[in-house]
Design goal:
Length: 451
């Protein structure tokens, strides 16, 4: 949403002779330029070159101060090495590695901060690819006291992300993230620090809507109780979206009222499949019929139709056929649940690897690492993409409501929680969205340039 000239001017505001690097995140990079589910086989995790405005800003920075480095991280960092003009790619959480890299740049004038740099290098001076070790690190999520600053240009009432913990206690066979398989109470942020940040955001920005960033928010009742105590002691109420694990909620139903009381507005359940064999193959053993009954029990009885519930499915898991995938789609269309379908993507060129990425042959897949094309006895990648696109298109055109993280984002653009909960996506007033989006972008630019 910035012109070339606007982004160059904004970048120039923060450039000095002491600037060490320009950092960029790949997490949402390119997502506004591509189809949500690309039809081209193997393109899901590839990144385009810099768009014109970013290219202009980078070139301006390099021309003004040739020593400035371009560093990239984020969720798609593995693909960033394909982008021309990038000096360093850092994979993982990276708090420690970013500081080590910056502290060892030859043009860093703060000599006393230099540390021994033993990471692998592509030449004798600077590393180009840095892999962070999520366990062997100085940074502690437990003691994180994060606060947004004036330079973050947070708008009044903006929905914000807030980090609760890191890692997941499970090791699902399709999932490749750092800290998978952690112990139950590891890497959890202090509940008091969380409460302090919520109060700060409310007093500073008026924020009451959140995305709680957590791989599995309900991985233990002890954690839910601690955070429930902190949030319900606030002098105001919040609404939030987060990832929940359905089988854990079924096994620990004492969590259900706690989540409601602390402000859960829209949960995200990774269901993945209703095919019993497929579920077993990825490490999700909940009986599909029980899962269906429990989802409706949650929606109607426990949460009294007050929440938009989002479920996600993966098309192309072992033993999944077009018929079983369509059966899942047909079932959800007869319910009030919001649903998203994703094609299975196997990517072998990543630092953190899932069981599927390592041993895809064992699960019955033929796979070409170059094209990312896979097939098994039941389906292939092209068909999985085709079905996912069809199902998502029909869901949006049907009775689907905004839910989870999408819901929290839309609340920045003129919609209330109650409006989004009660209005189908296809019936949302696009004029309201566009009007508020234009206003928000204009305000952001004005405030950024006035810093």
């Amino acid at each position: 949403d910035f012109t070339n000239e606007e982004l160059v001017a904004a970048t120039d505001k923060f450039l000095t002779e002491d600037t060490l690097a320009i950092g960029m995140s790949t997490t949402f990079y390119g997502s506004f330029k591509e189809k949500y589910l690309p039809s081209d086989v193997g393109q899901a995790y590839l990144l385009p070159n810099f768009p014109d405005n970013i290219e202009a800003a980078v070139q301006h920075a390099k021309a003004k101060f040739p020593n400035v480095k371009v560093m990239i991280g984020g969720a798609k960092s593995e693909a960033a090495k394909n982008i021309p003009g990038v000096d360093v790619v850092i994979h993982g959480y990276a708090e420690d590695r970013v500081l080590e890299y910056l502290n060892n740049l030859p043009h860093n004038k703060v000599k006393q901060k230099k540390t021994k740099f033993t990471l692998g290098t592509s030449d004798s001076t600077l590393p180009l690819i840095i892999h962070d070790d999520p366990v062997d690190r100085k940074f502690s999520i437990e003691n994180l006291d994060h606060k947004f600053t004036k330079q973050d240009v947070i708008l009044q009432g903006e929905s914000l992300p807030i980090e609760v913990s890191r890692g997941c206690i499970f090791r699902c066979n399709f999932c490749a993230f750092p800290l998978n398989g952690k112990s139950k109470l590891d890497y959890i942020r202090s509940a008091e620090a969380l409460r302090e940040e919520l109060i700060y955001n409310y007093e500073t920005f008026g924020t009451t809507n959140y995305t709680l960033t957590d791989d599995t928010f309900n991985d233990s009742t002890e954690k839910v109780v601690q955070i429930h105590r902190a949030i319900t002691s606030l002098p105001f109420k919040i609404k939030f979206a987060t990832y929940l694990r359905l089988d854990l909620l079924y096994a620990h139903q004492e969590q259900i009222p706690l989540l409601y009381e602390m402000g859960l507005g829209s949960p995200f359940f990774g269901i993945e499949t209703f095919n019993r064999k497929s579920a077993s193959s990825i490490g999700k053993g909940m009986n599909p019929e029980r899962a269906k009954d429990f989802l409706l029990d949650l929606y109607y009885n426990h949460w009294k139709e007050e929440m938009s519930v989002l479920c996600s499915f993966i098309v192309g898991l072992p033993h999944e056929t077009e018929e079983t995938a369509r059966e899942a789609f047909d079932w959800v269309t007869k319910t009030p649940l919001s649903t998203m379908f994703f094609p299975l993507h196997i990517e072998t060129d990543t630092y953190f690897k899932s069981e599927f990425q390592t041993n895809w042959q064992k699960y019955g897949y033929d796979f070409n690492p170059e094209t990312k094309y896979w097939k098994n006895d039941y389906m292939d990648y092209t068909k999985a993409v085709e079905l996912a696109e069809e199902f998502n298109t029909r869901m949006v055109a049907g009775d689907m409501h905004a839910a989870s993280f999408h819901m929290m984002a839309l609340m920045n653009h003129g919609y209330s929680f109650d409006t989004l909960r009660s209005t189908k996506v296809r019936d949302l007033n696009s004029f309201t969205y566009n009007k508020h989006k234009i206003r928000n972008i204009r305000e952001y630019k004005q405030r950024l340039m006035s810093l």
